[in-house]
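Fold this complex.
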Amino acid sequence: MKIIVAIKQVPERDAPVRIASNHKSIDEADLNWAMNEPDAYALEEALQLKEKNGGEVIVLSAGPERVGSTIREALAKGADRAIHVLCDDLGSRDALGAAKLLAEAIKPENPDLVLTGLQSEDLGLGQTGVIVAELLGLPHSTLIVQVEKTDAGLKVKRELEEGWFQHIELPLPAVLTIQSGGNKLRYATLMGIKRAKMKEVRAVSAADLGPAGAPVLTLENISLPSKQKSTQILPGNAKEAAAALVEKLKFEARVL
Amino acid sequence: MSILLVLEDSGGKIRRISWEAAAAAQKLANGAGVTAVVIGAQTEALAAEAAQRGFAAVIRLEHPLLAQYTADGFVSALQQLIQKESPAYVVYPHTYQVRDFAPALAARMGQVLIGDVVGIEEGPTFTRQLMQGRLNASFKPAGSGPCFVSVQAGAFRADGTGSGASAPVSTFAPTLDAAQIRTKPSEPFRGSAQTVDLGSAQFIVSVGRGIREAENLSLIENLASALGAEIAASRPICDNGWLPMERQVGSSGQSVAPKLYLAVGISGAIQHLVGMKASQCIVAINKDPDAPIFEVADYGIVGDLFEVVPALTEAVKAAKG
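Structure:
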C-alpha cells in the first residue's frame, strides 16, 4: 500500500502565544515548532499499516523552510520519503487554498491511501483532510481510531460522540482523518534519526502547483477571548492559596 | 436574505445542539425567517417536531438512500437543495457528523465552511477560536455564494427558540443513485461497558497533560479521596492509557455537571470545556495564567500543581476534620 501522510508543523503546545501587531496573525518570533499531534497519530497509523501490509509511507508537509525539521522527525520515525511544498503564505490561505496545495502535490503520486490528523492544534479547522478528499474525488471518513485492510478496501472504526463508535467499509483509494489515541506513538530511534538524513525530501514550490486563488474567507481580527465568568484567582504560595480556596468552597460557593 | 438551517437528529428526535444552531440562525436572520431542513428516509415525525419551533418553513430532504448517514449521500442531497433554494447562509450544529461532510459540500460549491463558530457579530462576522481556545479570530465571507457556518455546542442558548405558529412543511426529493455512495456504514455501538457514571458524580477531580507522567496520578487520587470525588481526565490522559477512556470528559467522552469540578493541569480546549462548563462550581489549577480553563473557572490557582495539589489535599482533610 502506498500511503501519503499529510503533516502540519504547529507552534509547540506550551509556546507563549502573542498576537501580531496587525491583529491578523500570531507573532512567530521566538516560537518553537512541533509536529501537530493528531498528525503524529496519522503517521503512526501509516507506519503500522506498512508494517502489516507492506508498501511505502510518504510524508507531505506544506510551509516555509522551518517545516523541514518536522519532516525529518517523521522520516526518523520511519517514513520512507517526503514531499515538502515550499510555501511562505500558508497562513493567508483559507482551508480550501491549503487543501488545494496538498491535493495537487498528492495527485501525481497516485497513492492508495491518504491519512492526516483530524485537526490542527493551531487553527483547529478540522477540514483539510475532508476537502483534500473532495478535491481528489476520493471517498473519505473522519475521526478514525482503527484501520484494517480488507480484500475490498478498508474497514475503519470511526469515533462518534459520547463514547459511541461505528464501523465503516470503504474502497481504496481513500482519505482518512485520524483521531488521537487509537495507537501508541513511537519515538524516533538513534538509528532512525541517522537514516532520516539519507532519505529523499523532494521540494515542490507552491507556485508550481497552480495559482493560489482569492480566499473565500478573510480573517478580520484576532483577539484574546473574553472571560465567561469572573474568576477569583487566589494569591499566595501553594499552602496559602489552597487554604483560601477551601474557605471559598466552604463559605462562599458552599459546595464543601 | 434566506437562511437554511440543517437540523441533526438522533434516535428519532432532533438533537439539542440543533436548537442551539437554530438560535444562531435566528440571530443571523435578524427577524427574517429561517428555513429548517430535516434529512432522512422517513422524516415526517422530525418535520412535525421542527414545525413547532418558530421557523418560517420546514423542508423534508427525503430519500431512501438517506436512511443512514453517509457523507456522499448528504453532500449530494444538500447540494441539490441548496442549488434550488440558493440561501445566503447555511447553518449547521458543529457535530462530528457535520465535520464529516460539511467541509466537502462547501468545497464542492467553491466555498469554505466557517466551522466551530462561538459568536456572530455585526457585519456579520463570525468568531471562532484558534490555538486551542487561547485566541479568538473573527472571519468574514469574501466570496459570493452561500456562506456555510457550523455552530459550536454551548455557544448559543437553545431556550430562545420557542414555539410559534406551526410552520408549513414541504418535501424535497433529491436524485440519488446507490453507486454514488461509496462508504458502507454499520450500526453505531458503545465503546466499552460503562462502569463509571461521571454524570451523577457530585464532586469531580479532573486531570490533564500538566500531570506529565502516569506515576504522578497518585497526587490526584489523594485529592479525590480527600474530597470524596470521582477522577476524570481530559483526552490526552486517556489517549496515553493512563486512565480508562470512560473517565474522559469532553465532546468525545462524557458530559458532566457536578457541584464541584476541579480541573488540574487542564488547559481547557473547547472539546473539553463543552463537557464540563455546566458544572455548578469550577476550580482550575494551572501554571499558565492564560490557559483558557480560567475563562470558565469560578476560582483559580495559578501555580505548580505538584505543590498546590498536595497542599490542597491537606487543607481539604483539615477542613473536613
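The two ends of chain A are 58 Å apart (CA to CA).
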